[in-house]
Design goal:
By secondary structure, the protein is mainly alpha-helical. It is 44% helix and 10% strand. This is Alpha/beta hydrolase.
């Protein structure tokens, strides 16, 4: 789960709560970003997604 700290639509603490409830949930918080993470900080979003994919072996390298 990727959550924006400054989202005007939901509280980012919900992402922390979900991760605490289930150890299978990976969570990343993105600071200085509103709700549209992919559009506002695409490089950071892609970095988080790539890290997750490599960690979980969805990509070869």
């Amino acid at each position: 789960m990727i959550a924006a700290v400054q989202s005007p639509y939901y509280n980012f603490l919900f992402a922390k709560w979900m991760a605490a409830q289930n150890d299978q949930i990976n969570m990343a918080l993105v600071d200085n970003c509103g709700h549209d993470i992919m559009a506002e900080v695409p490089d950071r979003f892609n970095q988080i997604l790539r890290h997750f994919s490599l960690k979980n072996r969805y990509l070869s390298n």
